[in-house]
Amino acid sequence: MALPPERFTTAADFVPLTRPPLAEALRHLGVREGDTLMVHVRLSGLRWLIGGMDAVVYALRDVVGAAGTLLAFCGWEDSPYHRALLPPAWQDAYRHIPAFDPATSSARRDFGRFPERLRTWPGAVRSGHPEVSFTALGPRADWLLEDPFDADPWGASGPLGRLVRAGGRVLLLGAPLKTMTLCHHAEAIAPVAGKRFRDYRMPVLTADGPQWRDFRTLDTYYGALPYYERADLAISSPVDRLAQQAVAAKAGVSGRVGAATGWLFEAPLVVEAVVGWLKRNF
């Protein structure tokens, strides 16, 4: 008999989680049929899940049903976002990078396995922005990702702005609060001064072949606002601090999903709480 991975050390850890109880746990947390749901998953938090990430997608689709839509933040695994900071020889190497193609370019691995699994699921679609790239599956997918690839992807007309307009929700399945990408939308629309933006060039696939194009977006990597310069705030993870405001405002509920902690947030309430905190502090 094959044993589960060595990281399991107690008898309880040897109880496998399967698709049906996972779906039931998601329903108990509050996920509903017809939801427009942005999802973040840390698979290791679920411990021993039979079927792995495939089972997660199946269970989510079991719960939201044919009328529901799943959304995930992909980014781009080979994004040259930091190219200008590299030594000249390294920058030159990026001349040979395959251009961004929504149909084939991989999601960033450090966002976990869920975005790439959803991106490659039959019927999934992907937005065209090479750096701030999203994928969605379901009847609202095309509408969520309708934003032109060179528009403001974090703003009101982008996928996250549309998620809020749709009364959508955010599920953290074993994932920590610091992964809640929706906080960047709140940063983008908050009426505060001192926002930081980043200019960069990206190769994109066009009808005329690969082309390098200029982009400018909110600098969510180094900090959209001068968080680290504010000693009074003592921030080590901006997104975690912002997500904590949503928790304090009771914009979400938590519960056990298998061995993991699950959080289910109401997207409009999250944005309201985060924008309020940003206005008070910046």
What features would you describe in this structure?
With 282 residues, the chain is an alpha+beta fold. Helix content is 29%, strand content 20%. The chain is built from 9 helices and 9 strands. The strands form 2 sheets. Strands 3-4-2-1-5-9-8 form a 7-stranded mixed beta sheet, sandwiched between helices. A hairpin with a 2-residue loop joins strand 6 and strand 7. Helix 7 crosses helix 9. The radius of gyration is 19 Å and the shape is globular. The N and C termini lie far apart (59 Å). The relative contact order is 0.16. The model has no long low-confidence stretch (mean pLDDT 93).
Class derived from helix and strand content: alpha+beta
- What sort of overall outline do the alpha carbons produce when their principal axes are compared? globular
Largest sheet: 7 strands, mixed
> In angstroms, what is the radius of gyration?
19 Å
- Number of E-state strands: 9
How far is the first residue's CA from the last residue's CA?
Answer: 59 Å
Q: How much of the residues is beta strand, in percent?
A: 15-25%
Round the mean pLDDT to the nearest integer and report it. 93
- How is the largest sheet built, in terms of strand order? 3-4-2-1-5-9-8
pLDDT below 50 for ≥5 consecutive residues: which ranges? none
Total number of helical segments? 9
Question: Order of helices and strands, N to C?
Answer: HEHEHHEEHHEHEEHEEH
Q: What's the helical proportion of residues?
A: 25-40%
